[in-house]
Design brief:
This protein is mainly beta. The protein has strands at about 60-65, 75-80, 85-90, 105-110, 115-120, 130-135, 140-150, 160-165, 175-190, 200-210, 220-230, 235-240, 245-250, 255-265, 270-280, 290-300, 315-325. It has one domain. The chain has no helices and 17 strands. Strands 1-8-7-6-5-4-3-2 form an eight-stranded antiparallel β-sheet, with no helix packed on it. An eight-stranded antiparallel β-barrel has the order 9-10-11-13-14-15-16-17.
Length: about 325
Amino acid sequence: MPRALRTIRDTKMPTNATLIKAVLAGIAALGLAACSASEFIGEPAAGDTTVDETAPVTTINNAFLFDTDRNLTANLFVYDAVNDTITINNLPFDNTDESGNSYANAGTIGGTGIPFYQSPQIAGGTFNYFAVILESDAGYSFGGSVATGNFGDFGFGGAYIERSESALPPEQVDNYIFTGDYAGTRVVGNGGAGNDDVGFVVGTARLQVDLRDLDTGGSAIGGVTGRTLYSSAGVELGTLAGLQLNLADINQAENGLENGTTDVRNADGSLAQQGEWLGSFAGPNGEEIVGFLVVEGTWSDNDFNFSDDVDVIPQEIRETGVFILER
């Protein structure tokens, strides 16, 4: 299973300036709270300030969160295996672009073996973005998530996935079970605006896939369990409630999973957080699923640090994450 990065290929930057696939463009229509343009906290460096708000060109093997109303704008992760660095496109004030500067390896998330990365710090810049990436052992799937705590709300960020080959698993009567790693970034939208407002979440994801179900061509359902929150320095903070990956349709024309919703619930079953997820089959025989999710809301009362003090203003949370699963 893809616990840590192993042999990640040196992905090349596409020549098309608008880049790859826009997905979930209508994400706000699902009833989640939309945020306005983020308020800067601190003094950003000059340059590296623009965000492309146009819908990028679509291809079938790449996908990313794209909702400019919610500042989900990151649309490409490129990993340099030689230098162990990442370049992330379309984020303001992260001090990187195609021509230079990269996110450097900043350590390992607790005892998971999963590395995390931090945006470069340059003269005059006070913004810190943090990112995490996963790739499958076979190299068919890759994904990443990024967030920052240096804004007055959720700020800019996003999630990205890609596949190098794709097919559906052979059709069978029994369901397929896919399991693997989940890793994401979490940011508090009404906190103090700093590194303490952003962290990492790691867990185990599982999907049950039925290729013979419904007229849509099949469906998938599952969740993320064993979720643990870590600080932006990779220090373990505590356990979190499980996350549901609710029913998604299988698009057999594109070997994808779509229209999935996700939620985190309180002990009484009420909603604490909700959002969406999307996935893609990868590998020449559909051996893998790579996907991403976004979820927003408040702390669940199943979380380690939940407070029922009525005088405490509930913290607003956004989490974006990626998972890579194998059958």
